[in-house]
Hints:
The complex is a heterodimer. Chain A has eight helices and no strands. Chain A has helices at 2-29, 40-53, 56-72, 76-96, 104-120, 127-146, 155-177, 183-207. Chain A has one domain. Chain B has one domain. Chain B is 75% helix and 0% strand.
Amino acid sequence: MIGKRFLRQRIFIVPRLLLHLFSLALILLASSASAHVGDGLAGGFLGGFEHPLFGPDHVVAMVAVGLWGAFLGAPAIWLLPVVFPLVMAFGGALGILGVPVPGIETGIAVSAIVLGLMVALAARPPLWIAAVLVGAFAIFHGHAHGAELPPGADAVAYSLGFVVATGMLHLCGIAFGLLTRWPAGRIAVRAAGGAIALAGAVFLSRLI
Amino acid sequence: MNGCLRLLLILVAVSSANAAFAHVPIVGVGGVSGGLLHPYLVPAHAMSLLALGLFIGRQHEQGIALLAFATALIAGLVALTFAVGETLAGEVLLGNAAIVGILLAGAWIPPKPLTWIVAAVTGIAIALDSPPETTSIEEADLMLLGTGLGALSALGAVVGGAGYLTRPWQRLGVRIVGSWIAASAILVLALTLAR
């Protein structure tokens, strides 16, 4: 009887000791909390991906590019999303190299107004004019974001995330713009263009 | 009880030990596995291989381009075993990725020799940009072997997959991916120049 009780006590004591030791082990193994998650491969990509998404002026202009591309139809529907990242990268390179471009923030706000109005008014200029207009605005957007490229993050992953997010915003605009196939959809898309132009006017008013 | 304590102390000691960092994307994975993962997990390498694979996959004659890539890759890896110092391979790789990305975005098919040169430059740049940072020569050789296998398998997979991208929207997708790759490479090149 005594032997059994002793054995039972031993059985309880060992797990308790193990528990204490395991807790000690966990405390020793715990690493410091990482408050800044922008480092590394995944952090770099995510940092770049979320960067354009948190700039409302950038978001509305990118969606407007997609909307306008969808409104203009082929080949603009694919040409604008292909041209934009390339010209934006050129603008980004200017920003990174410290080449000054005047009126960056104004240009970004104006891009939302002009592109929004193009959609709202259902403007159909020749393709080259549309490409030049979108390309010119891409330089402003690229310059603004290129200058903000963080030195600590994985540069390639960050830039990939940034470019992919911008492309996704274009695709969102294109997807919504495909509603133009239906009469009610055309009204919705043009209304969205008007809303973007209005948002651009608000951004511009804040700068003045 | 002593056995339990000893086991736990060993467990704590082993678990808290930091793995040797040998220029691998996943810390602690070395040897052939570490080298094999290298081209997949280093963004510049993965991006360049994706661009080159899509570029070669779009063309009818792929054999010579793949051979040029493999030869240049092996030559670069062999050069690394002779302890080649720091090179501009990273910058060359990005510049090459930008060119291939622009060619993809424009859906341009250049003369065949240009494709072979682009493939060879990518191969040697990936190899020279993968120096294993380890003190063991045997470990370094295993990692280089893994890097070679990883780069070849990645390129082969993309070239093989690109052959199936024949529908108009798929070709359009390739052009958009090409423009994204070129844009990213241009941004990073500018950042490198600025530094």
